[in-house]
Amino acid sequence: MQVKTAPIDGLALGASYFEFDGSGLAKTDQEAESGAYYATYATGPVSIGYSKAYKAPFLADAAYATTTNVDYYDQTNYSIAFVASDDLTVSYERETSEANRINDTSTEQESTSVQVAYTMGGMTLAVAHSSHDNNGYVVGANTDQTVLAVTMAF
User: Which residues, including other chains, have CB under 8 Å from residue 33's CB and lie 6 or more apart?
Assistant: First the structure.
């Protein structure tokens, strides 16, 4: 199920929910399900966004015996973008996702990114720098990356 609305100029709201009936065979399994909601707003040269999502994976009865299995994920995203001129844009985004285990422990995975793009005629130069902490929900598995892109239209 999904709903969307745009109650005023520049504002978009939405929500979704999915239930995967029959993903398990035993009556006491945790069925897989997920849901999310979001809001975006754009005015003039600025746009912002926020979203929240939840996901519960399928878990068979045997999964509960291993308490390190993930019971559900909780994810939050937000972003902001600024159009400085017809040629230059700058944006920032942050995403956190938390794996909540059956044994009441959790690990948070976090990613942040800054992007800059400059357009000259048919060519765009773009740079993005991203930082990822606890990749794969493994504490200390951190990565930084920088991407430089040059695109041309002929």
Answer: 17, 18, 19, 20, 55, 56
